[in-house]
Design a protein that fits this description.
379 residues; alpha/beta; Endo-n-acetylneuraminidase fold; three-stranded mixed sheet; 31% helix; globular
């Protein structure tokens, strides 16, 4: 049996080869990372900004904006006029990637990222339901981050939502700083949607991307309230509207992903529309995700499609769901290996002010899928 050294927590995310397991979690066989290309200008911009180590506003002067790869002309102008907002776009990109990987970490496609400007690979531009989710969560991330920046007073051109004032129909007093979601959505529409709109909304892919961008921005605020009165009697209640945690946005969009509607283009008068591919499908709404082509099974490495395959992925031998070894390893079977796990333990706080831990080593049994023929000799 092979001996593999493990270190927790991992330094990287996505499909980067490596085994990080608990005793109940096993691993498929390792595979080489594919090197897919990507052409969606919005995703290119997110790629650059999400991996920029410094505040984007420090890097994006008027000349730097013009040099950003993938920006459309209007995006360059927005960047030049609102360089400070690019920090929020950067943060929105980071939120989107992190949330995507959280939602899909147990799936065959796990929202894998690559270093550089390739981020999601060709999956982002193939018109699949995975592409639909990427566009929805990315546009939501930008709207969310810009809105939060407004509420924190980080942007000169926006602040709290001052339109919510007075007494509500329920009898409480509007007060506090309500999140200015309308500004965040408007910024996301202007910046994120521009590549498709600047060339005219004529292609089916552009229609699909615009619809999913808008579906991602269907964020609803909820109430936060504070009571005022003697001994907390709540004689007066003041409330304001805030956005939900981004995890809730991700949860909703993941549900939309599961129920996404397959569509195809249809000419209606002078307009080109996307309609359900089958009459058996329910009509989709502005909140739903749509896609044009069926997804691959993501089992095997396919550089043409930008699919990494599932070899090298962590799996759970006790699960019968998608994270189980049978499904995640695509029925290829698995072999037993021993792995040495290294993790922090016996942590103690030392005055003042640090926490020191020991390193504990123990062996766990892991399963690795048999190497498929397509990868034989590559690893």
């Amino acid at each position: 049996m092979a001996l593999v050294r493990l270190s927790l927590p991992p330094d990287s995310v996505g499909d980067t080869p490596g085994i990080y397991v608990s005793a109940a979690h096993k691993s498929c066989e390792d595979t080489m990372a594919a090197q897919p290309l990507i052409s969606s200008s919005f995703i290119l911009v997110l790629a650059f900004l999400s991996q920029t180590p410094f505040p984007a506003s420090l890097l994006l002067g008027s000349f730097a904006c013009e040099g950003l790869k993938g920006l459309a002309e209007e995006q360059v102008r927005i960047c030049q006029r609102q360089a400070e907002a690019m920090d929020s776009v950067k943060h929105g990109a980071e939120l989107a990637i992190e949330e995507c990987q959280h939602q899909f970490h147990n799936r065959r496609w796990n929202c894998s990222t690559l270093q550089g400007l390739q981020v999601f690979g060709k999956v982002a531009i193939q018109g699949t339901r995975e592409s639909a989710f990427i566009h929805a969560i990315s546009s939501a991330g930008v709207a969310f981050a810009v809105t939060r920046a407004c509420s924190r007073g980080e942007l000169e051109k926006c602040g709290c939502d001052r339109k919510i004032r007075g007494v509500s129909a329920e009898g409480f007093q509007w007060s506090g700083c309500s999140d200015n979601l309308s500004y965040g959505i408007a910024f996301s529409q202007a910046f994120v949607d521009n590549p498709e709109r600047s060339h005219g909304v004529s292609s089916s892919r552009a229609l699909m991307n615009l619809h999913n961008n808008e579906a991602g921005r269907k964020v609803k605020r909820f109430l936060l309230c504070k009571c005022h009165g003697v001994s907390g009697s709540c004689e007066v209640r003041t409330c304001w509207k805030v956005m939900p945690p981004f995890r809730k946005v991700g949860n909703v969009l993941k549900e939309k992903f599961e129920g996404a509607t397959e569509v195809h283009p249809k000419r209606v008068g002078s307009r080109k529309l996307l309609v359900p591919k089958s009459s058996r499908f329910k009509p989709y709404t502005a909140h739903d995700l749509v896609y044009l082509v069926a997804s691959p099974d993501f089992c095997d490495r396919d550089t043409h499609s930008g699919v990494f395959g599932t070899s090298g992925r962590q799996c759970n031998r006790t699960s019968h769901a998608m994270d189980g070894c049978e499904l995640l390893c695509c029925g290829r079977g698995f072999r037993t290996a021993q792995a040495e796990m290294v993790e922090r333990c016996s942590c103690k706080f030392h005055w003042c002010c640090s926490v020191k831990c020991k390193q504990c080593h123990h062996l766990v049994e892991v399963f690795k899928a048999w190497l498929d023929k397509a990868l034989d000799g590559l690893i």
